[in-house]
Amino acid sequence: MTHRGSRVLHVGSLSRVEGEGALHLSVRDGAVTEARLRIYEPPRFFEAFLRGRAYTEPPDITARVCGICPVAYQLSACAAIEDACGITVVPALRELRRLLYCGEWIESQTLHIYLLHAPDFLGCDGAIELARTARAHVERGLRLKQAGNAILELLGGRAIHPVNVRLGGFHRTPTHHELRPLGEQLRRAADDAWQTVEWVAGFDFPDAETDADLFALAAPGTYAIENGMPAVLRADGTLSSFPLHTFLDRVQEEHLPHSTALHSTLDGRRHLTGSLARFAISGRWLSRTAVEAARAAGLGDPYEGAVCRNPYRSILVRAVEVVYAVDEALRIIDTYEPPRRPYSEVPAAAGTGHGATEAPRGLLYHRYLLDADGTVTDARLVPPTAQNQGAIEDDLRRTAQLAITQSSATDQELTQLCERAIRNHDPCISCSTHFLDLTVDRT
Question: Is the dihedral of CA 18, 22, 28, 33 positive or negative?
C-alpha cells in the first residue's frame, strides 16, 4: 500500500534465505519509523527436547537444527559437554574436527555465494535464471559445493546431518588411502575458489557501513573455526575478549512480539557475527593464499588489520573464507597421521559446560548442565542469526532511509533493496527459531 509520504511495505515471505521469515517496513512523512525482520517460523523447542537426555545425545540431536550447518551444532555441543566432563580431545582428533568443519564452510559459504546472494548483484530473480545467463559460473559453484560435501561424507558419514561425530572424537577415523582422492578433489577446488573471488570482486558494491560491534571467536595463531575465546571489535576500533563461561552474562536475549527467535545484545549494544566479524578479528591468521585473495579483491591487507564493514561486501569475504577453508583442509590432509584411537573416552560427570564454534553464519554458543549420571538438566543454544537480528534491522532502517532521501524509489524497488540488505547477512532463520515464551491463561 502506498501513499504520498506514507508507506507500509510488507513482504509476507522472504526469498533466497534459509528458513521462513518476512519483512515489515513503515515510512511516515519520508522517515523510516519501523523496520522489522519478522521471524514467524514456528519455534522448534530443541532446548526442551534436550532436557532429560543422556549427555551423549546432544551432538546428534542438535545436528538436526540445520541441514546446511549441522557440523556447527555437533561440534559446539561436543565442546560444551566435554567441557562439563573435564575432557580435552587429543590434537589429532581436533585436527580432524577442523577438517570436517572446513567441509561445512566450503559447502555452506558456496551455497550462499552462488545460489542465494550472487543473483542480487547480477539482476536475476534466482539461481535458475542465473544458470541460464552464467552457466559456467554456477557449475563452478556446484563443483565447489560438491568438494565441501565430499569432506562431510568421508568424515561425517553423510553430507546432511553427519552421523560419525561423537563425544571425544569420531566413531571411525579415515585412512590415508581414503583421504588421498579427497586431497586431489580439493586441489582442483582451490582453482575454483580463487576464481570465485575474482568473479565476485567484479560485482558492483553499493556504499554502506555497519556500526555494529563485530563479534567472533579468536584463537591466537589460527583463523578461529572450531574453538576460541569470544572477542569484540567496537566501532571505535577497541578490541577486547572475555572468557567463554561468561557468554550469557554478556550476550543478553529478549523476546520481541514480532519474532519467534530471541533478539540479542552484547553488553547492551547491537552486534554482528559472521564473515565480516571473523575477517576483522582474525584476518591476519588467514593462509597466505587467502591473504593474497583478500588483497587482490580490494579488501585491504589482513596482515595490517584490514576491516570491512560494508555488508554488501560480505559475499567477497565469504569467497576469501572458501579459499582459506580449501587451503586449511589440504594442510590437514597433507599432514594427517591416523590417531591411535578414533575417540577419547568421556565419562559422565556433573557440571556445567560451555562450547562455541564459528558456524559459516557466525558464532554459535551452547551451554549444558549435567547431573552426576550425565543426564542433561538444562540446555541453552544461541545461534548467530538470533544475535544478528538487531544489526540486520538497523541495516534495513539505514538502507531504506538512504534510498528514500536520495531518490524516489518505488515500493517495489524499496522492497527489493530491503530484501537484498537482509540477504547480505545470510540469515538462517530456521536455526534461530528455538524459543517461545509461552503463556497459557486458563480459567
Answer: negative
